[in-house]
Design brief:
Elements: H1 2-36, E1 39-41, E2 47-49, H2 51-61, E3 66-75, H3 78-90, E4 95-100, H4 107-121, E5 125-131, H5 132-137, H6 144-152, E6 156-160, E7 179-182, E8 186-190, H7 197-200, E9 207-209, E10 212-216, H8 219-235, E11 268-275, H9 283-294, E12 298-302, H10 310-321, E13 325-331, H11 339-353, E14 356-360, E15 363-365, E16 369-372, E17 376-380, H12 386-391, E18 394-400, H13 402-416, E19 419-421, H14 424-430, H15 433-444
Parallel strand pairs: 4-5, 5-6, 9-15, 12-13, 13-14
Antiparallel strand pairs: 1-2, 3-10, 3-11, 4-7, 7-8, 8-10, 11-18, 12-16, 14-19, 16-17, 17-18
Helix pairs in contact: 2-9, 3-4, 9-10, 11-15
Length: 449
Amino acid sequence: MKKVIENKQIKNAITIVMALYCVLSPIKTFAENNRKIGYSIGPADTIIYRADSLIVKQLRKKGVRFSHNNSVTLLTTGQEKFDDLFKAIDQAKSSIHLEYFNFRNDSINNELIRHLAAKAKEGVEVRAIFDGFGNASNNRPMKKHNIEAIRKQGIEIYEFKPMEFPWLQDIFNRDHRKIVIIDGKIAYTGGMNVADYYIKGTEIVGFWHDMHCRIEGDEVNTLQKIFLRMWFLVSGQKVYGAKYYRGITNADYINDLKKDTCRSAGNKMVGIINREPHVTKDIIRYFYINAINDAKDSIKLINPYFTLSHSLKKAFRNAIKRGVKVEILLSVKSDIPLTPDCGFFNAHQLMKAGCQIWLYKPGFHHTKIIMVDGLFCTVGSANLNARSLRWDREENAVIIDACTTHELNQFFEQQKKDSFLLTEEKWKQWRTPWQRFRGWFAHLLSPFL
């Protein structure tokens, strides 16, 4: 009788365990699967979205497409960028497409044209676009005879919106993007134009910092589409066909480039946000505001022209109120007047709200990056001023990858070593009463800077 009772108790215990397993196992599996796509199970089975999944969901609603098979290699200096780019160009077999705000008429541009002309002679299709205002506004513009000399070497080159008298109508809606696509297989994008000061610096600001990246994967196709639409606009030529797109393979024949050393290489989630007037006019602003609003832990940002809209200021303040650690790095030096004064005014206001402001001393940071919660980041051409957010054609890669974000966070920490932390005492020592007034006045003009 005792054995029968014991057996019955064992059977009941087994039944209870199996029942619990059947109930809990799907919840565990559900949680594990959902963590893979960016959200987790909270109290009372509440779904808690992470910042990276939120931004993907938000951008998809705006029509941004994400792919999962990308590599992203960061190029953190001008030397790295141009060395890598020239190696890739030299191995091109089919097409080279370049879209830049400006090709400064200097030594690095001459070197680029030399590499491009050699490929054109081999039969590679070489197409280039530059912006008329970008060319006219730099201190070493290409002249008509320079452009004709480039064309004679087999390179097709067109100017977007040439500057014409009375010029005022030509200031807005410029092409500020920086894109190179080689064979439809690999692409470069970021904040660097073609200029030797990315390597040599300038007398006024010293070393000129900026950031670029190389992308391999399906988002190369997105960048190619952006370029070819622009090419039709400037040249009237419809260029199409499978040979301009990645297909199912990368360009394995292009070797000896800097490697993406992340374990996630080849499996990174990337989306391209492309601002075009009248089409996706608010996409860059939408990304930044949502990225800041989604943050739960940390925000690190570097941007050269920190003029800020009201909505961006509000987003930063709200993030600080939520307990998010917000760190922003700006440069003491700049290449233009008045705009940095506005940026310093905004930085001081945010410092008083609880933001950590770092002022970089050795040179000028033209870098445009943001890292959120260590989960996602962006590298691209867009500044946080009215030109980038309201008028110009811009393009940023949004990278949903913890490893790439970690690399940029490490870069940020390195730059802090050459910066000082802004405090109220430091503010009064560093900025004279006249400079503080100039900053206040400049912030009134922020919609036009």
